Amino acid sequence: MGARFIQVSVIYFLIGVVMGLAMGIAEAFRYTSAHAHINLLGWASLAIIGVIYTVYPDAGKTKLAGVQFWLHNIGLPLLVISMFMFAHDNKGVGIPTAAIGGLLVIASVVLFVINVLRKVRQR
Fold this sequence. Notes:
Blueprint: H1 2-26, H2 32-55, H3 57-60, H4 63-87, H5 91-119
């Protein structure tokens, strides 16, 4: 499971870097919040989670880790899509999309915390 989180995190890293470069070249920073969320919740958070699950494989082998993986990787794209919608003043679709995506990501984080508190022990 650690490897899955790390592999997905580098995809978010690539997307975030390319997006940042494109925004900089175009001097168009309307998507800054989406860029930040891709980098922080996608690249940084998922990479750290992957390392934790690699160092503590018992935590990575749980059903919670699998559910967490899918909640996060469904929720984050929805959250980012909502930020693109907000950048174009489309709040009608953006707000419910943000709510669903945000709740899925929060649920993922809660499962991660529960999993770590249950399975990560001092060696």
